[in-house]
Every structure is written in structure tokens, then in C-alpha cells.
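hey so i finally got around to running the thing on that chain from the lab meeting. sorry it took forever, my laptop kept dying and i had to restart like 3 times. anyway pasting the input first so we r on the same page abt which one it is
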Amino acid sequence: MAAETKKATADLSAKLHTQKLRTAIAAVVFAVMAAGLILGVSTGTMSGFGWESISALCPLGAVATMLATKTMVPRAIISLVIVAALILLVGRAFCAWLCPSMLITRLQEFLRTLQKRRKLAAETHDKMVDIARFEIAQAGEGATSAPAAGAKAAAPLSEGEKAALSGCSPKSCGSGCASCASAKMPHKKLDSRHYVLGGALLSTAIFGFPVFCLVCPVGLTFDTVLVVWRLFAAGDMTIAVILVPALLIVELVFLRKWCTRFCPLSALMNLVSRFSKTLVPVIDDSKCLETSQGVPCSRCAQVCESDINIRHIAYGERTLADCSRCRNCADVCSTKAITFPVFSGAKAKAGAAAGAGVAGGIGANAPAAQPAAVMLDEDALLEG
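ok and heres what got predicted. didnt touch it at all, straight out
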């Protein structure tokens, strides 16, 4: 089993072609902006960029600026409208394709030992596959039909395994039942990032300046470039040479889940991206191994950088409102069941309908098709 898990995680890593492209694009953009900062070219950084009278502000910075000054700033309002339109179109794509924090995450992964990388990948693999097995077993309970030809039945789970996966135990519900409510706890609309966002805006209102901007990882990344350059180019040794990189390290190394648990910018984008219906990943249930053959795959969940379990959405730490369009899920899907249509609504419904017909005949261990259209509407999921 260990050898099989190791091979599976290695195969996934090799298929992340888009990840390499995203890293290259983000690195080039960062290098160009960093060079402009060092050379004194007035193009700004990702916290605020443009040329002369044409410029755009970070959406969080724009809101904080108006809140601090208690003034409606036309440039900030225009920036917010433009950014909101982009988020509606491509969700949190900035996080996966341009954000410097993503580059630091890639660097962290590169610097990990091979043994550590394999261990983390194996843990994620086992967790996601176990969730898939649990869902398949739950959906197959009570079914009596024989598996279809070529279908691979999932190994049955013991009651202990079901209880562990569902979150049930004698302590939690008194009986250890595998069907207690904690098996699929709906995600709250407000997660930890939204509390950080609220704190950032409240501190701005209290102190009269954008407090979070002092510790924003995006700004700190460019600040680090600038203070290091000044140190070597002009011998400008100040406390900032130590303090700025130290803050960045604390946020992105010690707060390892910064992007999904702490970042107020991603929380702000989440409030808009939940209404996005374009370029959202859609599963074709007639191709998905879990709905067409009853095979506990979950490759898509293993590689998602936003902690979304697209196949079993209730088990992920985040929903599709946080999809960054990184395309990792599509890259690793062996049957090409995941696509990113320009508009997802109609194709999601069609895929769900097609999957329902296939899932009905795959045997006792096969789950019913999961309507992809439901996964596109976070509010519907939360109310369910």
C-alpha cells in the first residue's frame, strides 16, 4: 500500500503542467515589477500599479484608504469596480497566477526534503481517498445490483473507519453512528479570513491609516527586494533589513495556511467570487471514475491549492467560491472529466444529468451522481 501511495503521489506531481506555467508567469511579472522598483521606474507594484494618471489600487488597499480618510476617492472606486469585474470573470485567479505569496510557497516546497514532500503528499492522498471510499460506501448501502462489467468496486469500510471519517464517536454523538450530522458539516459563510478582514478594516478606522498594509505579504515581498537592494547598493543598513523579511517569513512560513485561513485579501475576493459563473471547474459525471465506475479516485482534491474537494464539496476546507482557476484538478484527472467552460451553468446541469444515468447502473458501491450545478452555488450548498 505504501508503494502504491508513493507511486500515485509521484504521478500526480508529474502531471501538474499548468503549475509550472503559472510559476513561470508569476516569476516573470514579479521580476519585471521588482526591476522597475529598483530602477525607479514609476510603474508601482501589485499593491498599486499603473502609469501617471492611469493606475489601479489593491482592492483591500482601496477600501482601507477610503475608510482611513473617510473620503470617497474616485481612483479607489474605479479600481474596486475594475477588480470586482475581473473577480466575477476569473474568480481568485490572481492568487494562483500572479500573487508573490504563491512563488514563496513554491520555493518552500522546493526546499523541503524529498522525504518530507512524499510524506505530506501521502497523507493528503490517504485522507482524500478515504473520504471517497466513505462516500461510495455510504451511497452504496442498501443497493443489491451486481457491479457493471469492468467496474472496480471499492473495498468496504469497517464501522470504525466510517465513524472516523464521518467525525462520529461515542463522545461526539453518544452512539458513534456513521450518519450523524458531523459527517457533512456545511461550511460557514464567515471563515477565519473574514474575521481577519474585519479586524483589518476596524483597525484602519480606529488608527486612521491602513494598518494591514504594513504587514501585507504582497507589499512585504516588494519591500524585501527594496531593502535588500539598498543594503548592497548603498550600504543602507536599517532595522527594516531585518524586520521586513522577518515579518514575511512569519506570515508565509509559520502561518503555513496563510492563503486559505488568514489572508484578508482572499476573503474580500471570496465575497465577490461566490457570484462568478465563468471558468468554474465542472465535472462530467459520465467520465469521473467515482460516478462511472465506483473507483475512489479523488486526485482533484489531492492537488487543489485552495483546499477545495471538488468531487465531495462538503469535505473541503473551502468551496468553489475560492477557486483560483489553477487548473491542477484538470491536469491530474486521468479521464479528463474536469473542464473549465467559459460559462459553467448549462454544462454543469448537462454533466449532472448525464452522470445520473451512468451512476444508476454501476453497482452496489457506486454513488449517485453529484449535481455539479449545486457546487457552483455556494449559498445553495450552505443552506442544504
